[in-house]
Amino acid sequence: MDYVIEMLSPKARKLYVNTGSRLLNLRTLNLYHKKGFRIEAVLRDYFGKGEDQIMLGMDFKNPILH
Questions:
Q1: I want to staple 53 with a disulfide (CB 3.0 to 4.6 A). Which of 4, 44, 46, 60 is the partner?
Q2: Is residue 7 part of a domain?
Q3: Position 64 in a domain
Q4: Angle at the Cα of 43 (from 18 to 17), degrees rounded to 5?
Q5: Whole-angstrom Cα distance, residue 66 to residue 54?
Q6: In a domain, 65, yes or no
Q7: Domain range for residue 40?
């Protein structure tokens, strides 16, 4: 993931990723937050009842890096 961010940051304005809200995806969500992604939208019940899709974005002009 660091490679993709490094290669895209000089050329792109924003990078989007998405993940599910199930317990299995919490590690993925935490990784994205540590890399500087922020939640942009939540599509409720996208994958079924109680399984949301979480869309995250990283703004390369104003990145939040930890």
A1: 46
A2: yes
A3: no
A4: 10
A5: 21
A6: no
A7: 2-59
Q: Where are the alpha helices (DSSP H) in the chain?
A: 2-8, 26-35
d(CA 22, CA 44): 12
Torsions phi, psi for 18 (to 5 deg): -140, 155
Residue 17, in any domain of the structure: yes
Q: What is the CATH number of the domain that holds 53?
A: 3.40.630.30
3 state DSSP class of 15: strand
Is 54 within 8 Å of 21 (Cβ atoms)?
Answer: yes
Do residues 55 and 18 lie in contact, with contact meaning Cβ atoms separated by under 8 Å? yes
For 3-43, how does the pLDDT look when each residue is reduced to its tens digit (9 = 90+)? 888 888 888 889 999 998 887 788 899 999 999 999 999 99
How many domains does the chain fold into?
Answer: 1
**Rounded to two decimals, what is the model's pTM?**
0.79
Q: In the structure encoding, which two tokens stand for residue 18, read together?
A: 């998405």
